[in-house]
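Why do we care about 3D structure at all? Because function follows from shape, and shape follows, mostly, from sequence. That is the central idea of this module. The next example makes it concrete: a single protein chain, its amino acid sequence, and then its structure expressed as tokens.
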Amino acid sequence: MDWKVIMAKSKVSKNAPKAAPELAAAEIVFNAQTGDIIHEKNANVQRDPASLTKLMTAYMVMRAVESGKVDLDDKITISKGAAQQQNNTFKVNVRQPDGTMALSDTLPPGCKLTIREALAVMMTSSANGVAKALGEALAPSKLDAKGRKIPGSERDFAREMTQVARNELMMKNSSFINASGMNDGGPEQKSNLTTAHDLALLNYQLMKRFAQYEPLLSAPSVATSVIMPDGSRQRVTSFTTNSFVSSHGSSGNKDGFIASGPQKTGYNELTGGINLLATAENRDGVRLSSIVLGGRTSDSRYAANLKNLRDGFAQVKADPQLAQAYTHKGGFVTVAAVSPASAFAEKGRAGKYGPSYNVAQKDVSPRSRFNKAGHRHGAAPSGGVVTVGYTAPVAEVAPSAPSAPEGNALVDMRQLERSTQNNPAVPSQADGLGRIENATPPQRPAAPEI
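And the structure:
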């Protein structure tokens, strides 16, 4: 056939539909239980994480708690620098120059809150000033010109963040200059840098190493008691900035999966840092994590996330051994202050297990659960409030031998660990992309050391 005829037949009609623009620049989806990568796109390209930086700050906080350097109930103080940064939905009443009181999303210098409260507020409200205060409180000390030990700065904390990320978490393409994800404000507007793959490594370790603190990383709302500079206390309830947590915070959504585990939004339009990290679990006990970087708009990052999770759950089958580990009886369950409790209890058995966890109890896994009524044990429902400053009495369930799976049973994390060690999870049936912790991404030029 003449090549001109072929060319003529291959011409695209003017009325042919155009390809839809990409929802996000970089993506990765992985099985949060096995580490298997299900889908990735531009996963090793460096981008601005914006407020997804706070996940690394959270890791540093929990790492310091685990080492005994700090306690969750230790108090941090808002510095003058931290008082200049906004805290989004975390607002306190501040006296104005005319003597009236008005809500402000910046905290006055000298305010105090516990590390437990600060961690929850930073993650739920994406509070930048609180993140800076945490960075300052945990910064390694240093020596001045005269050899005297002085407190470190947020920049010192960021240097340590970078070292831990690269050397401990193998996040080789990540660099941090602050704890919040804000631009540095200079003429070049420097920002933190990371990749979707590096964030996957971070989120995997958050769930694997610090599962007991998950309620602080994914609450739809948080109630705190802020100590004001004059010594008075203000009760403050702040709400999530994450639409995925709001829409999928309970089992009443059409997708059949719920927000479960670390969740974080990031938004920096200047650098294209319109991002989302979401973790979800379905009724089979399968848990996936989706990371979306460089969304075209705020809505497109949510659309990309939902598409990735829907496709991912359609591909990954539940491992029977893992599913049984999630549902057999045994161990103990810790309950604490979440309202309302009735939203979680199986009909006719209200309050037997309770709605949440004492996050100070290190042996408890705050994994979400569905009961027979389709409700969820273990975290606040959409609109619920996690009270992080109060701990209710512990309820213990007498250990028993593993029995047939029951949808309303909760499990001791130690038994889950034993089960998964003795019965390695079946690799994902997806596309054979490998595991996030074993992958060796190509080395990209990292930001200069700071």
